[in-house]
UniProtKB/TrEMBL annotation:
Domain notes: Has a modular structure: an endo-beta-1,4-glucanase catalytic module at the N-terminus, a linker rich in serines and threonines, and a C-terminal carbohydrate-binding module (CBM).
Region ranges (Disordered): 243-263
Lineage of producing organism: Eukaryota, Fungi, Dikarya, Ascomycota, Pezizomycotina
Source species: Pseudopithomyces chartarum
Superkingdom, natural source: Eukaryota
UniProtKB keywords: Carbohydrate metabolism, Cellulose degradation, Copper, Disulfide bond, Metal-binding, Monooxygenase, Oxidoreductase, Polysaccharide degradation, Secreted, Signal
GO CC entries: extracellular region
Protein name: AA9 family lytic polysaccharide monooxygenase
Every CBM1 domain range: 291-326
InterPro entries: AA9, AA9_LPMO, CBD, CBD_sf
Length: 327
């Protein structure tokens, strides 16, 4: 009896580290689950996507980073027709939230991409060109194996649709990558797509463009990165973030070029479209409150040994285990 209860607790703990997106938040209100987010057909919804070169036993539901499931998750295109299209203004934020109360409890980056549908997004399989509109990696002084990562213990990823984005229907692809096993070449990808119609947009040429699958390779630096034995710059996967304007010639630069940008906050001054949550306070510069958590950093909670103060925002209790610096 006791033993089985323990076993169940252990299993639940493992499962809770995994996650999937099911809804988006508009103006503070969550849309019904899978109203605008394509639902996957995976047997186990929260399973990650791994490289096909990983040991077979580690690959879940047959989904691979170098296969079609990396686009919007396994079987998601089959639900495209019954998924509605969210109208968003260029410049507005889109925000995806995790299902079943899960939080990102793997260290790793979040990335947001867009791809324009040739006509209706309800009939678009995502095989066209993708550009990146957002990425966030490390943004705190915390533990590099956990809460130093911007998304750690959060349950959402948000990005602003760049103002210059041409009007039309798009897939917005939200991705979180757990990199706790990248040192053994096993990053875990969690992906979902939102169907949107952009209005009030501009005449920018998004880019650089990549394809899914194709944007990530098992030999990429991020897929062979160790979060252990000290903090280091994280080589962000995929292309550079499109910041609006004509930035996107269709020539795709080498992935490695994206690397140096990483752990620092986004190059803010050059990016008026950068979205609030991304404008994380760089922690490199000592401030009067050096040692305190940065915006969105953890500032308290049962078992938390870090500084219980915020260098930006106010420390708010999310639950017994987690307090966060928020505006
Ligand atoms: Cu995992």
């Amino acid at each position: 009896m006791k033993f089985s209860a323990l076993a169940i607790a252990a299993a639940a703990q493992v499962a809770s580290a995994h996650y999937f997106f099911d809804t988006n938040i508009v103006g503070g209100t969550a849309a019904p689950a899978f109203k605008y987010v394509r639902q996957s057909s995976r047997a186990i919804k929260y399973n990650p996507i791994k490289f096909s070169s990983n040991p077979a036993a580690d690959i879940r539901d047959g989904s691979t980073v170098d296969g079609p499931d990396i686009v919007c998750n396994q079987g998601a295109f089959a639900s495209a027709g019954k998924t509605e299209v969210l109208t968003v203004n260029a410049g507005e934020e889109v925000r995806l939230k995790l299902a079943v109360g899960a939080k990102f409890q793997h260290p790793g980056p979040a990335l947001v991409y867009m791809s324009k549908a040739p006509s209706s997004v309800k009939s678009y399989d995502g095989s066209g060109d993708w550009f990146k509109i957002f990425e966030e990696g490390v943004c705190g002084n915390g533990d590099f194996t956990s809460d130093a990562w911007c998304t750690y213990n959060r349950d959402w990823v948000a990005a602003k649709i760049p103002k210059d984005t041409p009007n039309g229907e798009y897939l917005v692809r939200m991705e979180h990558i757990g990199v706790h096993r990248s040192h053994v070449n096993q990053p875990e990808h969690y992906v979902s797509c939102l169907q949107v119609k952009v209005q009030g947009g501009g005449s920018g040429s998004p880019g650089p463009m990549v394809k899914f699958p194709g944007a990530y390779k098992a030999t990429d630096p991020y897929a062979n990165f160790s979060i252990y034995n000290g903090k280091k710059d994280f080589p962000m996967p995929g292309p550079a973030v499109w910041k609006g304007g004509a930035g996107g010639s269709s020539s795709t630069p080498a992935k490695e070029e994206a690397a140096p940008a990483v752990s620092a906050a986004p190059a803010a001054p050059a990016a008026p479209v950068a979205n609030k949550p991304t404008t994380l306070v760089p922690v490199a510069k000592p401030s009067p409150q050096a040692g305190c958590a940065s915006l969105y950093g953890q500032c308290g909670g049962s078992g938390f040994n870090g500084a219980k103060c915020c260098s930006a925002g106010t420390c708010k209790s999310m639950n017994q285990w987690y307090s966060q610096c928020l505006n």
